[in-house]
Amino acid sequence: SEQTQPPHLVVTLQHRPPTFVYCGLFHCAAAGDPAPPRPHRHVLTAGFDRRLHLWDTRRGGRHKGTLGGLVQHKSHVNALCWEAKTGRLYSADGAGVILVWRKTGPGTEPQHFSAVREVRHPQLLGKAVTGLALRPLRRRGQL
């Protein structure tokens, strides 16, 4: 019979300089990725500092797992969403802007991602976007 382990701290992601973290999620590999990361190994966080921080939870050392950050937003980042089918990343901020990121290289480091689209919907501009969801039954991702 399986014994249930009590909850415990797995890893601490120390942001430097300290900042408010508003959202985070585990990395989902795209279906075509030749070497998808192990479950729960890569984490993405974002918040008040307007950066998307990429982390490797199994990496130690001086930087405690940080792979670096993506900087493109002009306001604090409130929401993140991965599209597992294509590996695209969506991020939304406090100014109502949504960025679409595409993986451009083989790794998960920040230099392997680039912003490919900026969505500025008139009804969202100036309003904080606090959640993102994709419609799973569409052939293409749809916010």
Automatic annotation (TrEMBL):
One of its GO terms (biological process) is motile cilium assembly. GO terms for cellular component: ciliary basal body. SUPFAM superfamilies: WD40 repeat-like. This is Peroxin-7. The lineage of its organism: Eukaryota, Sar, Stramenopiles, Ochrophyta, Raphidophyceae.
